[in-house]
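Data availability (excerpt). All sequences and predicted token strings are deposited with the supplementary files. A representative entry, 5-methyltetrahydropteroyltriglutamate--homocysteine methyltransferase, is shown inline so that the format can be inspected without opening the archive.
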Amino acid sequence: MVEQTATKLHYDIVGSFLRPAQLKEAREKFVAGQIDQSALTAVENSEIKKLVAQEIAAGLQVVTDGEFRRSYWHLDTFWGFAGIEHTRPEHGYFFHDEETRADSARVVGKIAFKPSHPDIQAFKFLQELVADQPGVTARQSIPAPAQFYSELLRGEDNLAALQQVYPDQAELITDIGQAYHDLILTLYQAGCRDLKIDDCTWGMVVDHDFWENQTNGDYDLEELQDIYLQVNNAALSDLPADLRLSTHVCRGNYHSTWAASGGYAPVASHLLAQEKVDAFYLEFDDDRSGDFEPLAEVPAGKKVVLGLVTSKKAQLEQPETLIARIKEAAQEVPLENLSLSTQCGFASTEEGNKLTEDQQWDKIRLVVATAKEVWGE
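Structure token line:
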């Protein structure tokens, strides 16, 4: 079992932060053709430096770049692979009472890792920022291989394109696994020792109504879980022993709204019992997430990070309520293997959730203070 910084702490973050006004303005100018990529990158660099300093000042020992270089938490990574094109379908993703921007990723050739993948340079910059900061770890987050697989099947156009290139699903799963494995190893070579894969597929598949709508009723829960587990574990197998691997699961996070509901019980035997990660970051901020009983499936020694503090709204949770819920979860997983975090990031897309930057940091301080009260660290 990997023992990196995050496994020794009991407070953590999921990773994305609200985009500062200067960064939003620069991205708008870039899209409008008023500035070039180098000018946008300069603003990104400046704002990421400020963010990392804020993270460290808040007491965080695992830091991220806030996903400031991304428009989406997942699509930007997909677009970085060979064999993938950026498309704009008729509809975006359907959330509760809201529809996202319409973007997707479609297969146009065999899928493979490219050394020029944007996540590599993004991590290298972050790593340089913390190189002289003792005790601080740079974390890279990437969307899960299962999320990639799911995107390539989203909508009739994507599915038709996929079948043209990959009539054999086994070959598709192999190529996705290999592309991700190569990406992860390249990140490792760049110094990454803490990698989190973000994965909404498990959070969506537990919602029967969501999948009935997505597939017109034509889906098999067991088959989907088998595929998701296979493609994720293909990417996560045979990796260096000192690379801490974790996964974050939620049910959608866009502009303070959500996409699916349901507890972890239907997927616990696959996700929690069999996925090849060291830690699970799980959404538990409201009743949509279910209870803690499925945590009994987590293998001994693995960590669970409880997402009890919502990133969707500004109101602060009561510390005593959080402490009571942590104690409840400890009936399923030993307290020393639990940690506390927000349930998701603050800006899974560049739009961000409906709270201010000050309120965002209030949430982080609440997580840190509550964890120290519980675990004494």
